[in-house]
Write a structure and sequence with these properties.
Chain A is mainly α. Chain A is about 75% helix and about 0% strand. Classes of the chains: A mainly alpha, B mainly alpha.
Chain lengths: ~375, ~325
Amino acid sequence: MNTATQSNGQGALHRGRRRGSAIESVLLKLLGAGSILFALGYVVCLLYLLIKGASKIASFTTYASPLAGVDNESAMRFVMGVCVFGVLGWLGVAGVRVIVSRFGVWTSAADRVGTIVAVVVALGGAVIARDHLPRFLISLPSETTAGGGIGPEIFNTVYFAVLSTMITLPIGVGAAVYLARFARSPRFVAVVRVALDTLASLPSIVYGLFGFLVFVVEMKMGYSLFAGAVVLALLNLPLVVGIAEESIVAVPRELDEASLALGATPIQTTARVTLPYAWPGILSALVLSIGRVFAESAPLIMTAGTTISRASAYSLNPFRGGETLAVHLWYVNSAGLSPDKVDVSAGTAAMLVVLVALTNLLAARLARLGGAEGTRVRKATR
Amino acid sequence: MGQSATIVDTAETVTERSPIVMRSRFAEDVVRFLLTACGVFVVLTTVTMIGFLAHAGLRGMGAVGIWPLLTGRVWKPEADSYGGLALIIGTFASASGALVIGAVPAVLAAVWLTEFAPPSIKVVERRILEVASAIPSVVYGWLALVYLVPIVFAVAHAVRGSDAPVTGEGLASAAVLLGVMVAPTVLLLSLDSLSRVPRALRDASAALGASPWQTAFRVSVPYAWRGLLIAVFFGFARAAGETMAVQMVIGGARRLPRDFLFSPTTTISAQIVMDMQEARPGTPQNDVLFSMALVLLLVSVVVVLVTRLLGRQRLS
């Protein structure tokens, strides 16, 4: 009896015994229907958004789009081409792989060929068709006329992710290592934890105010990507420290002790044993924080501004201002005058959703890689 | 703590004997110092942020007076009149509305998912809501602006009469938008809390002859209620702190709504973003914005305290 219940799995016991009154079962059905509708609502919304934005995102042209004459523009087109055709090539190879491996003839050599094909498609597509990319993805935004694109916004969004990760990575991982392995005073650890909790609970607008006051006003830098990146890095600190610390604490004690017994110092142990083992977890924290960089708007409006200047649209100088996709979506609708702002917004929103969904999938995959199965670990222990 | 002490001790004996490691002793100390500096940095940043905010905020409160600031009805920076009542009411009303519209269904859905749903549906719905909770709030804001506001406009005219001075922008739209926005997060947190209910409790309840419904609502939910409450509070804090999405649908009028549900008003965070661009730093006009941010900060501090209190009680 006992084993039978357990093997039946969760809920078998009380589902099998009593059904409950008629009212209860009706309520139950209603609750279930409501719950499923609840999730369906989000699915429908997102699919609708993606379909509506898809035509903007995937509108390849037969004629060559003229260059707008901005610095680095052709380089940007090339990179965008590599990304677009890389994704297409990868999807194609993955599709072929699914079909072929059904017949059981997919080998590791075929895997290598597939990778080469994807790379060739990416580079070749970028070289041949970089002027025929969807206009929306490579052209500059326009405030008053129809046909504005989001090229600089995409660039800024990715650039923000790079800049803020460059700040979050050392400080966040450093603080996590400190908390998990090197802190000696419990009282100070408690103080750091309270600080992290406070940071995590602050509304993002407060970060925006802080960044505005410190960088824009006190340091007289004006709106800059740098200020925005610092603010976003601070915003992401609690998240990164939390997950990184968790994955460092989860490293088996025996590994550390074995390393120390072999004569490694604590720092060597941390750098060569603990961190490589915890790396997938740390990476997934970073990827999640990048997702938040993509999504955040209020603090960026106050620190990096809402404009794209033609001269520095694709400039790598971090001390210029610039808007991200999320800010653009807001700006187009609240201050923009272009007649096609619904279309532009749909395209921007769909692009944003795709980026955020990709980062989240990546984070989930990295988190699953954690522990002994992590690729980095395999490399480190070879 | 005890464990990290072991590491340190072992290392000390090792370094003393090995000349190679001895040479890097200095580097070790530098790295150790840097790691500590990271911890200190976190604390310093938090203190600085709160300090900046409190400094300017209290200056603003001193200039205007706490009572007029919190209860005044007119927010007109150009006339030096700073009454934050409309902002505060806007924030609290829209966030509370979001709880009714978003958080309550989210908790119910979580109960259904953990107690009654087939595992396959549970996994799929969880994945969907994980994606939904990561969608940028401006995207929700834009969808609401384009599709929700016209619907609310029609509803408003249906309810108040076709020639009433009502609009689609206002607290009703903001509450629905915020509800849709916070629901996925609340649901995910509720799922976590409900999944911690011990299996033995459910089995015992079933063995006593309780129906699934009774088991769910008299055993599981009471056991998990602290976690559920934390989830709801978290949703409230997120709704109260949301800025751009609300700014897009609330209409942006600096006054109490003429019609509570269906006419333009504003919230604290939306007003901060809108006014900050024009207010010169150091002026009372600028300082009162920080005072308002302090009010917002107070909300989130209360939420953290309540969450901590609830979390601690659970352990004992």
